[in-house]
Every structure is written in C-alpha cells, then in structure tokens.
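ok so i was messing around last nite and threw this chain in just to see what happens. nothing serious, just curious
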Amino acid sequence: MNNRILNPVLALVFIFLLPACNHAQQESLQSTSTVPELKQDTASDQIFLSITGDTLYPVVQTEKEWRAQLTDAEFNVLREAGTERAFTGEFWDNKKKGIYTCAACGLPLFDSATKFKSGTGWPSYYQPIKKENVKEIVDTSYGMRRVEVVCARCGGHLGHVFEDGPKPTGLRYCLNSVSLDFVPKEK
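result:
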C-alpha cells in the first residue's frame, strides 16, 4: 500500500524538479556567454550543451580522416579556416526555405528564416538555430580583431560574426557556403 502512494508522489516530485534543473542550466549557460580568447589548441574534445540539456558530443577525427571525408575546398575552409571568394559560393543568394547544416558533421546551424541579403557575397544570418550549436572565438589573425564562428560539434570554421546585422539581434553571421549543406523544407 505504501508503494502505491510513494511511487506517484516520487513521479510528481521528479516532474516538478526537472524543469527547475533545466531552468538553472539555461541561466548558467546564459551567464557564461562571454567570447573566449583564441587558443592554439581549440580543444575539440570539449562537450557543449544545448539549451534543452541535450549533450553535443564532439566529432573528433584525424586530419587524414577529415581529408578523406571533405572536398579540398571544404577542408580548406572547415579545417584550415580558409575563406571562399565573395559571390562564388552556392548559398550566398539561395532563397529557398530550409535548414543550413554543418558540411562536416551535419549539425543544424541556421534556418533560412533568419537569412538576409547583406550585400557581402556570403550567406548571412542574424541568429543561429540554437546559440549552443555554434561557438564564437576571438580571432586576431591578419592584424584584425574579429569573432570567428565554428561548429560546436566538430569545430569546423564557418565564418565570422559582426555587430552590423538587422533587427532583432543586430548580428551578421557571415559564413562560407562551402562550410554548409542545405536541407530544403518539405512542402
């Protein structure tokens, strides 16, 4: 008889405590949203958490494995932080509805609903699908101070984010088409 009462009570306690844990985790993630300094070793073995508490396990491969998986252009951008020429990428003027994913690991990154015409020649978005799906790193290469955007799962270089975008965020995630794959929305 005691188990009949105790089990439903424990279930209710669990149901009410779970959202509180998730809320605390969200506050913790939001309070640590500062941009880290660029390091020589970008620690691709770190685990990044999504806002829903799902764990994004890192994709760790050797240079040889990445070279076998990616085209030369993809490898240059995603693994060596290269940049494709403006107005040459496949997606800079793509107007189709869908989701843009990381070309290296398939993680959903940006929704076409946040894409806008920036005039730069690269696909531009004002926010990622989930902030936790991208990592921002201070980039001081070439004598400039910029913020590099990388995939949070595989560490692939996507592009840079600038503070000259449209509302509602004021941000412009300026990305290389070659670092993305496009999954059209089904009709």
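not much to say yet. Confidence is low (pLDDT under 50) at residues 9-53.
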